[in-house]
């Protein structure tokens, strides 16, 4: 369609002249074709710029469908039967929500989102989304989480979910099971693949998933296919910074395997997304500016004749100037209102609609509710090459809910309908349910041999099976990998190395391994050098879909910045969120692709659980496997970086994530044991867990692993005795727990206590307070439920058993961490930790400031002895002086 919307009001231009220009252009288009017409415009634009008329760039196109009626092609489906199926789904979705809330009105849920998305989903299910089969990997579909009732209702028609399940929507604790409120693979592992309901996560996950698919192809790990990644988003959802935060990555990487569909119902929860603006136009500009292919599907077929009559572009102009708040109002108002408000601004517009009755005007459909428009948009999207596509589809929130919910600001709260409203809905969508049944609001599934069910099944069969559906398709690994880790168990022969360096050494070994070498996916957000990983640049290369088009400045050095098409490292740049979504794609590939990729995502620990925890939570929901490495962790190991960087928090923040095993190791052999066992548990035994391991940059001689089978076991369970006191005579005894960075301070304190105070202390390495804590609460729970049986003993209590003396724990994290286990130790536990804001300074100064160094551990031990009446106050007082402790120093918690 010609857009001459600006014809009428261009000041300073004679309308006659304007008309001639337009006619000349029309002639070029007609006679020479579209390409020639575009070239002509490009030339004119360049000429204008040359003559100083300024760049004429606008990111927006008029407020009309991108695909014109003439270009839209035929709809291949049976529109009538598809409408019937959609109506049945709408009914069952509504019945689910209404029934669940009748049983318990606090259950919630609504169909307002699905009501707007139904056509967008159904055209996908009937014509586009391909299932995963033996021959074809299938499409990846992220469905708008709040639309889940519609997805369940479809699965009910498909015969995949029983009426009983539907009845228990949002009541997962019913004896015969229920359905998750939203997509949760953890709770419905055979059904949902992707958790999408924390808004903003799925757009970012989809982008990095599409890129990861290309990575696997470029590395030859999976065959090249034309599988697509579809992400269905809400328009309100695009306000989340994660939603649009990586759209330039998608275009830079030419991800034409990626399609966003944004359900532009113009509303979010409280009100309009852009009451005073136009969300569709705003999104169009953002995506076009970022290099995406943008397809607007705004108006249904009913509007086509109107646009045809709109030769001078008045209607297009009028629609373009109305803000979304006005557009929303049209949905709730009468046809007469619409006539007056939209068309009444110009007699020529009024004339255009004079033959259309009010009711027909009111029900003119939006593009996102017209299967033909949606089909045309999807077809264009899957056929488009060279860049990702976004479809901006105009819909109505609560479509079909009539006056009780359509287009209303309260539509999210609409979970109960009275009988009258149900009757209306039933009649509008032609559901074969009698008036007297309405009170029960029964589910309705036509017989198996009905045309609807036959059609729906045939469509899914043709497309390779049901979507969504989740299946683990990878085969377990077989090797034991002992040889890979052996060298790290014997110490570093006095050579000073950090645990980060030790980890990188292990990574290098793993990358060479015949079984897992190819599967390892190292992921870094611009911190490879920080962690001494640059040697890997050369060893396995940095993934770049374009290879390396330039000679790197450091090409003459051994460890130059090598990019390659089959590079293995995902160097993501400064985006922990993006890196985490790469981790998620790699950590779930065992299900998505049937490939056991093993991600190792190494990052500045403060910018992990603290910054992107919701993605880590989603990774857990998705049953992700892999290793997160919090680099240069602890509040006092990272010298010179200060408050924002020094992490004393992450091990506390790791606590809530049920499947995340968190370790704070001090020595290379501890890391080796943890990683080797992790690979076994996740990739051989198929456990749905993942790991968080903190590593430091403080270099020291790595000791060999002490002998004894209990050591390996203890490392994994969370603690083991690392160095018993050699002083067998002393009556003054202590047990000191050290972890990670602070373990060596505990060892120093052991020496001071022995030499200066004749005290015999044993030092334990606590590798995981989280593991100890979980074991403790699990044991307590078992005991609670089995009162007549012999009580079980938590692992930490077993370890300490009859170990004599006072108990002191020192960590580079919050004191809350050791306090987690204090109830299961035999006596009072004194905790030293790094609560408070970090500081820039050297390690020694920091450990003094946070009161976690050997001197403070010594003091805390003596003080505990004083509490027990084993020594005099004067001894402690003198120790404070001898140790050089300033009792008036700043309190780190408050300073
Ligand atoms: C991160 C996050 N914040 C808030 C919510 C709560 N929430 C659920 S639906 C919704 C509004 C959704 O609006 P939109 O994205 O436009 O989707 P629509 O339902 O209109 O299709 C909100 C705020 C959420 N699910 N996730
Ligand atoms: Mg919305």
Please give the radius of gyration in angstroms. Answer: 33 Å
Q: Give a short account of the largest sheet.
A: 6 strands, parallel
Strand residues, percent: 5-15%
Q: What's the total helix number?
A: 35
CA distance, first residue to last residue: 67 Å
Which secondary-structure class do the elements indicate? alpha/beta
Strand line-up in the sheet with most strands: 10-7-11-12-14-13
Bound molecules: thiamine diphosphate, magnesium ion
The low-confidence runs, each spanning 5 or more residues with pLDDT under 50, are: 1-7
Mean pLDDT score: 95
Q: Helical proportion?
A: 40-55%
Anisotropy-based shape: elongated
Total count of strands: 20
What's the arrangement of secondary structure elements?
Elements: H1 15-32, H2 34-50, H3 79-103, H4 112-127, E1 140-142, H5 148-157, H6 163-167, H7 201-218, E2 229-234, H8 241-244, H9 247-252, E3 258-264, H10 279-289, E4 293-297, H11 304-309, H12 314-321, H13 324-332, H14 335-343, H15 347-352, H16 358-362, H17 371-383, E5 389-394, H18 419-428, H19 451-462, H20 482-486, E6 496-497, H21 499-512, E7 520-524, H22 534-540, E8 542-543, E9 563-564, E10 570-571, H23 576-587, H24 589-592, E11 598-604, H25 609-621, E12 627-631, H26 650-653, E13 660-663, H27 668-684, E14 690-694, E15 700-701, H28 709-717, E16 719-723, E17 733-738, H29 743-757, E18 760-766, H30 769-785, H31 795-800, E19 806-810, H32 816-819, E20 829-832, H33 843-849, H34 854-867, H35 873-883
Parallel strand pairs: 1-2, 2-3, 3-5, 4-5, 7-10, 7-11, 8-9, 11-12, 12-14, 13-14, 17-18, 17-19, 19-20
Antiparallel strand pairs: 6-15, 16-18
The chain binds thiamine diphosphate and magnesium ion.
Thiamine diphosphate binds next to helix 4.
């Amino acid at each position: 369609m010609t857009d001459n919307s600006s014809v009428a009001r261009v000041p300073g231009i004679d309308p006659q002249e304007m008309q001639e220009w337009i006619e000349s252009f029309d002639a070029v288009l007609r006679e020479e074709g579209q390409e020639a017409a575009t070239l002509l415009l490009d030339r004119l634009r360049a000429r204008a710029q040359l003559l100083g008329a300024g760049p004429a760039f606008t990111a927006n196109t008029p407020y009309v469908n991108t695909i014109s009626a003439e270009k839209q092609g035929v709809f291949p489906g049976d529109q009538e039967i598809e409408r019937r199926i959609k109506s049945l789904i709408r009914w069952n979705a509504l019945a689910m929500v209404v029934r669940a809330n009748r049983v318990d009105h606090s259950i919630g849920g609504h169909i307002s989102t699905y009501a707007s998305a139904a056509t967008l989903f159904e055209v996908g299910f009937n014509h586009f989304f391909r299932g995963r089969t033996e021959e074809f990997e299938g499409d990846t579909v992220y469905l708008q989480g709040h639309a889940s009732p519609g997805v369940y209702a479809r699965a009910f028609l498909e015969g995949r979910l029983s009426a009983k399940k539907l009845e228990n929507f949002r009541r997962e604790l019913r004896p015969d099971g229920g359905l998750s409120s939203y997509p949760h693979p953890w709770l419905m592992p055979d059904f949902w693949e992707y958790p999408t309901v924390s808004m903003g996560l799925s757009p970012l996950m989809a982008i990095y998933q599409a890129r990861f698919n290309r990575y696997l192809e470029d590395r030859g790990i999976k065959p090249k296919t034309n599988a697509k990644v579809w992400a269905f988003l809400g328009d309100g959802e695009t306000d989340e910074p994660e939603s649009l935060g990586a759209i330039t990555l998608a275009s830079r990487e030419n991800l034409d395997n990626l399609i966003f569909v944004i359900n532009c119902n113009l509303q979010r929860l409280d009100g309009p997304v852009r009451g005073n603006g136009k969300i569709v136009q705003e999104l169009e500009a953002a995506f076009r500016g970022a290099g995406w292919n943008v397809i607007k599907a705004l108006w249904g077929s009913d509007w086509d004749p109107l646009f045809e009559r709109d030769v001078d572009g008045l209607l297009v102009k009028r629609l373009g100037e109305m803000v979304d708040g006005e557009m929303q109002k049209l949905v709730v108002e009468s046809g007469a209102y619409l006539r007056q408000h939209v068309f009444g601004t110009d007699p020529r517009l009024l004339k255009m609609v004079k033959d259309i009755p009010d009711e027909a005007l009111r029900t003119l459909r939006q593009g996102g509710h017209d299967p033909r428009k949606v089909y045309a948009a999807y077809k264009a999207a899957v056929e488009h090459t060279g860049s990702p596509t976004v479809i901006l589809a105009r819909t109505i929130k609560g479509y079909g809910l009539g006056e009780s919910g359509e287009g209303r600001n309260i539509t999210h709260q609409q979970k109960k309908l009275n009988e009258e409203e149900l009757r209306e809905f039933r009649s509008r969508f032609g559901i074969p349910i009698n008036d007297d049944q309405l009170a029960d609001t029964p589910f309705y599934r036509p017989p198996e041999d009905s045309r609807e069910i036959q059609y729906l099944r045939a469509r899914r069969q043709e497309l390779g099976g049901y979507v969504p559906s989740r299946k683990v398709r990878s085969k377990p690994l077989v090797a034991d990998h002992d040889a890979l880790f052996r060298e790290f168990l014997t110490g570093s022969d006095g050579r000073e190395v950090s645990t980060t360096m030790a980890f990188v050494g292990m990574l290098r070994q793993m990358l060479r391994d015949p079984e897992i070498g190819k599967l390892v996916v190292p992921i870094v957000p611009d911190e490879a050098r920080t962690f001494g990983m640059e040697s890997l640049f050369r060893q396995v290369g940095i993934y770049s879909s374009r290879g390396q088009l330039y000679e790197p400045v450091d090409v003459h050095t051994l460890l130059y910045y090598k990019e390659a098409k089959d590079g293995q490292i995902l160097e993501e740049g400064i985006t922990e969120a993006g890196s985490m979504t790469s981790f998620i794609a790699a950590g779930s590939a065992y299900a998505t692709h049937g490939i056991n990729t093993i991600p190792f995502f190494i990052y500045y620990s403060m910018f992990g659980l603290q910054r992107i925890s919701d993605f880590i939570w989603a990774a857990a929901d998705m049953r992700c496997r892999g290793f997160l490495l919090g680099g240069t962790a602890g509040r006092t190991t990272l010298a010179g970086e200060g408050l924002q960087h020094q992490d004393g928090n992450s091990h506390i923040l790791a606590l809530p994530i049920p499947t995340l095993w968190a370790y704070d190791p001090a020595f290379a052999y501890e890391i080796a044991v943890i990683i080797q066992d992790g690979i076994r548990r996740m990739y051989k035994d198929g456990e749905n867990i993942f790991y968080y391991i903190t590593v430091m940059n403080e270099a020291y001689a790595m000791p060999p692993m002490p002998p004894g089978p209990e050591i390996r076991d203890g490392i994994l369970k969370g603690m083991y005795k690392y160095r018993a006191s050699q002083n067998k005579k002393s009556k003054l005894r202590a047990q000191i727990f050290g972890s990670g960075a602070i373990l060596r301070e505990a060892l120093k304190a052991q020496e001071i206590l022995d030499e200066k105070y004749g005290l015999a202390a044993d030092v334990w390495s606590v590798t995981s307070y989280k593991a100890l804590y979980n074991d403790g609460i699990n044991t307590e729970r078992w005991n609670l439920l089995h009162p007549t049986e012999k009580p079980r003993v938590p692992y930490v209590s077993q370890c300490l058993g009859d170990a004599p003396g006072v108990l002191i724990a020192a960590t580079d994290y919050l004191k809350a961490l050791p306090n987690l286990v204090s109830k299961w130790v035999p006596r009072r536990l004194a905790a030293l930790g790094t609560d408070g804001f970090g500081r820039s300074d050297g390690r020694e100064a920091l450990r003094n400031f946070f009161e976690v160094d050997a001197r403070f551990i010594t003091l805390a031990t003596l003080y505990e002895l004083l509490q027990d009446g084993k020594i005099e106050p004067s001894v402690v007082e003198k120790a404070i002086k001898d140790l050089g402790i300033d009792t008036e120093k700043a309190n780190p918690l408050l300073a």
